[in-house]
């Protein structure tokens, strides 16, 4: 429990810092839109390229891990989409927050927990699984924004394809995976530059979440919060466990897969919501609430794994 608290407390603290900075007007209000744009177009893509390029996967059960994590991501996306199709009173912008809240995952928290529980071998396996998840999740989320928010008059496949090709997060994923596939290692200076640039994405993104949070948001957006959290903390871990067990992954690999799907949603969900016209107020509430809830859900998940 102490290890989980040590990992999650800095996340909540950075959200709180952003909330205080915005409420006290310590920074000019124009700072936050600029910070969000910087994170979206530069910092997050740098993080993705650094994370996905140069990973050696030949000695890992990568095929079974990929099948497990991709299957669980697709299943969670189908669950939230089916719920929305049966509750069409929810607007498209609000659905994008529900979707991201039930499909995305906090990479930082997941990798830190895996390293704490399973050591370096588990961390390498988690990084592999997270890399494949990141690509699929970004494609799914951008597609949902394009269809639910950008195409109010109906489906426009040309616009969808354009959104996918121009999205900086997907571009970062494609570059990182492409370098990995062709076996090209980044020069140390370039890799170091990307790592240093990417380190700013996490704290800046969390502070932007806190700056956007409004008192009463949890009560106002209780429905997408409740549905996304049910999928995030209950359905996804069970699906991941079922797939890993069925595919015959080892005990450690199964534990890694379950932990990847037991953490709260990612702070980058808020940045994407702001930039693509989603309900960023609902997204901020979901990120904050899920991070708080994970203080309870993660110890329970780890106890069940053990």
From TrEMBL:
Belongs to the auxin efflux carrier (TC 2.A.69) family. This is AEC family transporter. It comes from Pelotalea chapellei. The chain crosses the membrane at residues 7-26, 66-86, 92-113, 125-149, 169-186, 193-213, 238-261, 282-305. Keywords: Cell membrane, Membrane, Transmembrane, Transmembrane helix, Transport. The lineage of its organism: Bacteria, Pseudomonadati, Thermodesulfobacteriota, Desulfuromonadia, Geobacterales. InterPro entries: Mem_transp_PIN-like, Na+/solute_symporter_sf. It is found in: Cell membrane. It is a multi-pass membrane protein.
